[in-house]
Amino acid sequence: MKQTKMSGVHQAGLFTSKVFSTLRFYNIYFFLLFVLCIPKANAQSTFSYEDFKSLVLKNHPTVKQANLYLSDADAEIMQAKGAFDPKLSSDFDRKAFKGDDYYNRWKNALKIPTWTGVDFKVGYEQSTGKKLLSEESSRLMVAGLSVPIGQGLVIDARRNTLKQANLAKNIAEAERQKLINKTILYAAKSYWEWWFSYQQLQFVREGYDLANQRFVATRERSRVGEQATIDSVEAKITLQDREVALEQAQVDLQNARLALSNYLWDEKEMPLELPENAFPPLSAVRKVDETTLQSLITQAKAQHPEIQKYDLKIQQLGIEEKFRKEMLKPTFNANFNLIADSFSSNPAYTYENSFSTNNHKLGFEFVMPLFLRKERGKLQQIRIKQQSTGFELNLARREIMNEVYSAYNEVKNYERQLRIQQDAAKNQELLTKAEQRKFDIGESTLFLINTRESKLIDMKIKVESLKSKYEKALANLAYTAGLTELL
Helix, strand, or coil here: 123? Predict the structure, then answer.
């Protein structure tokens, strides 16, 4: 019995372990949705930048709109492929005059275009009446093809349109990524503004609480005559000054929370509000160096959405130029069709009335504009566009590289400022503690201790401000390199 009980406890422990293990793997989105949908909850919940960004990428309307670019490009490709769709046609023509049935002509055909430019055709013709032409057959089956020997052999309008549509999908992907990157950049700025406003409020509230404690203590000491009454007045002024700062910090946090809520949406495109119980976690400062810079430069040169767009446009123009060169050739199409009697008209199906080289229709079509002004003008326009797009590409590369370097310099500048400011804040904290000890033994004044303390709070807030600016500079660095986040 004892062994059985121990086994049951062990099994219960394993079950509990599995349950907690499963809970740890729940998608972060459902947790965030739970937090965001219960703004009146008392318990505070952290809301990290990674959680925020994943929610934006999943549900923000602008991101969903950007994803539609690919769907639209797929629709364009489908339209271009439609030029290669087989076509079934039927044509009926009848004439009757003064009671005589002159003719009834019924023609049916199935045309099958191919990628090579050759078009296949199968058909059935039926003709009846008193006034048929001498070369017309009553019932006829046709199977043949049309070959572009001149213009259209290398490339034609159908292939030109489809090739460009395929490249257009890559352009749509670049546009999509560009829009997403821009959305993430603005979202990151809003998040780090909220992050700073929250940190600022904590320090301002801490200063307010210290001033309130000091005012209460000074007031009580002045009542019993241990301290001058004017000291309580000075403590009251400091308290009021910090109370005003606290009110402003609370308003700043509320406004930052509202700005951040612009990026919070659920899966059904319903807006969410960031609850007051959500707070940002403390984040470690990420460092970047020359290796990161060179990696970003390489990434920007190869995959920046703006550069990709120009590269793809140049490829499109290359295809268009090839097509326009093809249009300079004369139109020379050869048509060859095998013909045969239908089974219904001649049950005795022999070699003489079957598909054979003796039974055929053959034709040629030749068209050649004498001056080719339209074709030459189109080709010249395409070459001008190629040059113009090449200039734009070179300019974009230059500007993007300089923007990456500029953003990197800004990041390193904030990094240096932050390091200096953190060191200065530590020194100010030492100075404030020393002043507090002197005040406790009566060798300092209330004015000095308030001044030191206010200076320390301002310096701590400036440290958090620089952290926020540093993170926004990192987001801008990723954006200039064509990324949503640093590698």
Answer: strand
